[in-house]
Design goal:
The complex is a heterodimer of chains A (217) and B (10). With 217 residues, chain A is an all-alpha fold. Chain A has eight helices and two strands; from the N terminus they run ααααααβααβ. Chain A is globular, with a radius of gyration of 17 Å. Chains A and B meet through helix 1, helix 3 and helix 7 of A and loops of B.
Chain lengths: 217, 10
């Protein structure tokens, strides 16, 4: 565990907290993409299957990972529940039209071609990595459709992007300190994922500087 | 070997 990874994970937790705070305080999920949330649910549930096989108390790290995995899975399920049931009437269904079936299909095909070992567990893991790299796209498209973004929603996406950026620093750190090689899959997808946020970062920082709400062109 | 594949991350 290094400071970049810990910082990344903490930003991830903050982003989830901001997401739930936005829904609970405004009693609305306007501006949020249910499709992105569903994709994250799929990502977490295909990647964290090892929860069934790993003893949480094996080491301090597995304990930490287990807590975080359960947190991500449960908060993700809770967010979907809030958007689909309690605040359904505020959900912007008309604009949330990104076709996620194509993303899922593409990630599945890529996972069948590129994986580290030919096992169900490894293919699902690769699938989750591919899918995570594009899971934010429906959210970004929704924002582009509607134009102006609520502050808390833009902070949410900024934290998610920050988490991914810190993970890259973490990998560079581990490459040199632990001499880890052969991680092209996670590194490649992680870099693509971070690049997807680049455009958003630009407009986010611009809007912060001007002290205005974020507007996407 | 799981250790090599970054599976100790989230």
């Amino acid at each position: 565990m290094n400071i970049f990874r810990l910082g990344g994970d903490m930003l991830h937790v903050v982003s989830i907290f901001l997401l739930l705070l936005k829904i609970q305080t405004s009693h609305s999920c306007a501006g949020l993409s249910l499709k992105t949330q569903i994709l994250y649910m799929v990502v977490f549930s295909t990647r964290y299957l090892d929860l069934f096989f790993t003893k949480p108390w094996h080491s301090a790290l597995t304990f930490y990972n287990t807590i975080m995995k359960i947190l991500f899975l449960s908060s993700s399920a809770y967010t979907i529940y809030l958007m689909q049931k309690r605040y359904k009437h505020t959900y912007d269904k008309v604009h949330d039209t990104f076709r996620i079936q194509y993303l899922i299909a593409a990630a599945a095909v890529l996972a069948l071609i590129f994986h580290l070992r030919l096992t169900v567990f490894e293919i699902l893991w690769a699938f989750s990595v591919f899918l995570e790299s594009v899971a934010i796209l429906p959210q970004l498209f929704l924002l582009q459709e509607t134009g102006e973004v609520e502050n808390i929603t833009s902070h949410y996406i900024f934290c998610l992007g920050g988490y991914r950026t810190l993970y890259i620093f973490n990998w560079v750190w581990r490459y040199f300190t632990e001499h880890r090689r052969n991680q092209w899959l996670a590194w490649g997808c992680g870099t693509v994922q971070t690049l997807i946020y680049a455009d958003f970062f630009y407009y986010y920082i611009l809007s912060r500087k001007q002290g205005k709400k974020l507007r996407l062109p | 070997e799981l250790k090599d594949e970054l599976k100790d991350e989230l």
